[in-house]
Amino acid sequence: MKVDVKIAGASYNEVPSVLLPLTAGGKARFCEVSDTTAETSDVAKGKKFYTADGELAEGALQATQSSVSETNVFYYWDLGTKNIWKIPLTVSGNTYELYTYDSANKNATIDFDFSADNLALFIGYHDNVTFASLSEDGELYNFFKSHDFVAEIVKDSQLTADVSCRISKADISVYAYPAFALVYFPYSKFSNATSLKNNKNYVIRFRFV
Question: Three-state secondary structure along 113-131?
């Protein structure tokens, strides 16, 4: 993150990183990483990252198609048009099928806004996906507010997670409006948010944990 620093008595504001020359030649970049939120369980096994304490760590997440339960898991990929899949959820033994609300084209579409600095799911009402179920203390509302949300970028046919991004349930907002419901996941609260936004052309597996 950007910090204010003092070098040789001079102050510099909002410095993202510092490049210093090495005695053996070349340069090394130093960054302030105390705002890192990722943990080893969030990062794919074998991938390295720096913790908030500046320590080099290796991810421990092993997420493959065979090891990830398909319950409350769905997939997204950007084809330049709207995705055409519904989201199945199982909550306390009840099955819900979430359809994105789209006033112009009322079909089973999932359209995440990767161009803005947020990830939002617009849900249309139908059958048991009702205003009441998505209002405060409704079953779907309580589900979203009691589960972390994980987005995993997968780049091979075995659906192995290459990058994992996670947001805490405490940072997920659910709003029930008269015409539709909105589940809001702010990018700033995701671990590895930049990777999620920059890799939207790959398949992305979403799941609630």
Answer: CCCCCEEEEEEECECCECH
